[in-house]
Amino acid sequence: MNELYNFFRSNFPYCVREESTVRELLIHDKNKTIITHDSDHKPIAASVSRGNNILFLCVDKVCRGGGIGSYILDRTEEMITSQGFKEITIGAGSGYIMPGVPTSRPVITESLEEAKICTGIDDSAKRFLEKRGYRHSWDCNCFDMRLDLDDFNAKPTSQPDVTYRWATASDFPAVLTCTNDAHADFTKYYDTADLYKSWGPQRALIAETKGEIVGTLIVSFEKEGEGIGSIGCTAVKPSHRRKGIASNLVVIGTSYLKEAGLKEAFLGYTYSGLDKLYARAGYKISTYYFMAKKEIDVEEN
């Protein structure tokens, strides 16, 4: 549905997400979609929900403040509660376009690394949803980070006993052993043969010592858009943490993005604590997310 995708992209130009993924999420056959048009048949507000999760909720920036947002949200909540759900989430669910509701400030007060918030983001959506009973569902902050690769100059620290290289097909089983030990939730992202080819938009970078793979990182080249590279799913075995391996993976992976001639590096859907790891390579927080959730009393609806 070009109409819905174009409406999303015009209102969230800063969202880094592969176009095919966004389109697939927006037209899923289990979605419930509401679109409101103006007199010229142009969309001015829309919501897309699946189950109890709102994947997309937006009023066009030139039409906000007139009650359209409340109307769309009311209808969306009615559809969800009519299915018997006891809570509503916005953002991350069975799939996500953005992990939560973009906002310009930390949702939880804590010490975080430097931020450079993307143009066009403020905290109005968060304030609107809080008035409607939504609360942050995490005990920490969630955010994206970015780095202008022209400004990237970090260097890896010397580690004579650790080798960093691209994983090959023969490394496949050992990489999964590493991620299962380091962070099992990441294993599903490494469990694809395409990561271990010498070509393609994504590759697995590994850290190896004495023949053992002890750290991994996924590096993506323009998968999310022209001139954009990304890193993510950094995982280091517990036995080899606090030795600078994760930092070196991030720096080396980012250097490959710069060497490829890309303009910007991105990492998404991360959280408090990891900002310090990525900041060592020069990444700055670019978008905070309000991980919105609302408890519903079904009997009252």
Set out the fold topology.
Blueprint: H1 2-11, H2 19-26, E1 32-37, E2 43-50, E3 53-59, H3 68-81, E4 87-90, E5 101-103, H4 124-131, E6 135-136, E7 142-148, E8 163-166, H5 172-182, H6 187-190, E9 202-209, E10 212-221, E11 228-236, H7 245-259, E12 264-271, H8 274-279, E13 284-290, E14 292-295
Parallel strand pairs: 3-4, 11-12
Antiparallel strand pairs: 1-2, 2-3, 4-14, 5-13, 6-14, 7-12, 7-13, 8-9, 9-10, 10-11
How many domains? The number is: 2
Stretches where pLDDT is under 50 for at least 5 consecutive residues are none
Give the CATH class of the largest domain.
Answer: Alpha Beta
CATH architecture of the largest domain: 3-Layer(aba) Sandwich
What's the Cα radius of gyration? 21 Å
- What's the number of extended β-strand segments? 14
Structural class by sheet pairing and helices: alpha+beta
Taken from the alpha-carbon principal axes, the silhouette is elongated
Q: What percentage of the residues does DSSP assign to strands (E)?
A: 25-35%
H/E series: HHEEEHEEHEEEHHEEEHEHEE
Largest sheet: 8 strands, mixed
- Average pLDDT level: 95
Report on this model:
This protein has 301 residues and is of the alpha+beta class. It has two domains: 2-106 and 122-141 and 290-300, Gcn5-related N-acetyltransferase (GNAT) (Aminopeptidase); 153-281, Aminopeptidase, CATH 3.40.630.30. The chain has eight helices and 14 strands. The longest helix has 15 residues, at 245-259. It is elongated. The two termini are 32 Å apart. The model has no long low-confidence stretch (mean pLDDT 95).
